[in-house]
Design goal:
homodimer, alpha+beta, 8-stranded antiparallel β-barrel, 5-stranded antiparallel beta sheet, 16 strands
Chain lengths: 323, 323
């Protein structure tokens, strides 16, 4: 009786939507998890240590608490990503804290005293001031779910508009392992669960990257194109999402002792003993099958395949591998 | 620098989407929260104590832990809702536990030993076996976002299909305070954050209602029409969403001592000292303005209104009131 809902179960058959209604019962097929497990080695892409950010929190009731973040590749958010690299190289976050946890929204970390000029920790030199225009990129070789990533993105077809409905953009897809939204002119990363963004003050401030947050609830896609995303948590998100919620306005902790201390944040090239990771290439046949299975679950548990899935409900698989 | 992303901020102007691209900067306007705060008393609907389920967990580090659930009204899921009322009246959950917490998915409670016939707690008599056909309802007077709820739902217009894209259904809307999806023939409640569902075994089992879960991550809409939803957590969801994640498969706790004990579950008519609640009528003008503001944030923080919002990103406002 307590088997389900079961995220490990699931199944895939990329049947056209029009066929689904005619089936009394779905055909059992591999689950999304089984497709990922069966993906050939060639479909996985190693994440370079230079693209990892390793955050060690103070130990908790269960022991060590390590959060690993993958930084976004070009062309997205590179001004902020550059700042984050500088802040990590300067060991700037060491001794700071997770100071805000708002239910169904974000966990945020950095300098809890950052808004008080007298108490704020000085930032390292050389950080870029990135303009708002960098929240989006010109349309490039983004890959909608249905198509491989081959050169500059053509204008959306009527078919694409029909098959890729999205409340927040003309369409969505994956770009080199990352969820993106786009229209005919531009593309931008999307605020899915565990994505990491740059907190900021009012416009035209865009944030330096010193104050970061991660999404711990339903995707707040209204933040797309309004805040820079610099990466995603690929391990340890549960260490942030299960923290006690702050009782102050917007989930800020009211007492300093409620904050979770940050011991250190290091780039993968400097962090001691971190794991190695791979993501499933979003241009691979395996990913296409996995995404189709997420959109139409056909394992024995499911009786009504959905016929689709939103971009944030098809997370890009990431796995640990031997270094 | 740490102001945002700020869920309390926001703004509303129900401009057509076509106008948005021409604006260099949005016009500051009331936030969704301000619209809700300003809604007249007449736009709020009292939740009857007969529709409340009050779950007291064992006290935690911060003291008492009370979770309040609102049960779904007709016509949805009434067979299961009836079972839940019987289970609460029999005090069946007293002494059981929250035994599964899976990150970005669900927290689940009931009888952790329910799968072992020798150790399972006996269910009260008189529970209904509800058929799978009850996962959906014939199309009724559902209210898509753009229209009030007036009699039987007409077939979807081309305009509705165009303005209400959804990955999981032909359209979405609100029915007497609840998020629903629908097509021309049927409608069903949606798996949004904090919705409460009935765990079950493989089809044709539909679950009794004894084992319940609530959504604590991005909306797993693939479960729509596959599992019964019986209500939503209207207070205390953070007490479930911040529990430590289970380290067993699918987030089950591996050790009994990791479970969170349930002291009691009572219907509102029997629970001692519970609060009273109201929800914002989804047929009200205030709700229409609130939803439009969620879809197009225009307070000073936002520089690019999204132009839309998915059904699970427009939660129905609920507030405590004096009993």
């Amino acid at each position: 009786m307590r088997l389900l809902p079961f995220a490990l179960a699931g199944a895939a058959l990329a049947l056209p939507v029009s066929l689904m209604a005619e089936e009394a019962r779905p055909i059992a097929a591999p689950s999304p998890g089984q497709i990922v497990e069966g993906a050939p080695k060639a479909d996985w892409v190693r994440i370079a240590p230079t693209d990892l950010l390793v955050m060690d929190l103070a130990p908790g009731p269960r022991g060590a608490r390590r959060v690993v973040i993958q930084l976004m590749p070009p062309p997205f958010s590179q001004g902020w990503v550059g700042n984050v690299r500088k802040l990590a190289a300067a060991h700037w976050w060491d001794g700071l804290s997770v100071y805000r946890v708002q239910d169904n929204y974000v966990a945020q970390w950095g300098d809890a005293e950052g808004e008080d000029p007298k108490r704020a920790k000085a930032l390292p030199g050389g950080l870029a001031e990135v303009p708002e225009s960098a929240y989006i990129q010109p349309a490039t070789d983004c890959s909608p779910l249905e198509h491989n990533c081959q050169g500059p993105m053509p204008p959306l077809t009527a078919y694409q508009r029909q098959t890729s409905p999205d409340r927040y953009a003309e369409s969505t897809g994956y770009f080199r392992g990352w969820p993106v939204a786009y229209d005919a002119k531009s593309s931008w990363p999307t605020h899915c669960y565990a994505m990491v963004g740059v907190a900021r003050d009012l416009s035209p401030n865009t944030g330096s990257g010193a104050e970061l947050y991660t999404v711990i609830g339903h995707a707040p896609r209204q933040l797309d194109r309004n805040i820079a995303l610099i990466g995603r948590v690929i391990e340890g998100i549960e260490l942030l999402s299960s923290l006690p919620r702050g009782t102050g306005a917007a989930g800020f902790y009211e007492k300093a002792e409620e904050r979770t201390p940050i011991v250190s944040v290091r780039l993968g090239t400097e962090a001691a003993g971190h794991a190695a990771y791979e993501y499933l290439s979003t241009e691979s046949e395996s990913f296409a099958r996995y995404a189709a299975a997420r959109a139409n679950r056909r394992d024995p548990f499911f009786i009504a395949p959905a016929g689709g899935a939103d971009i944030c409900n098809i997370p890009v698989p990431v796995r640990r591998v031997k270094g």
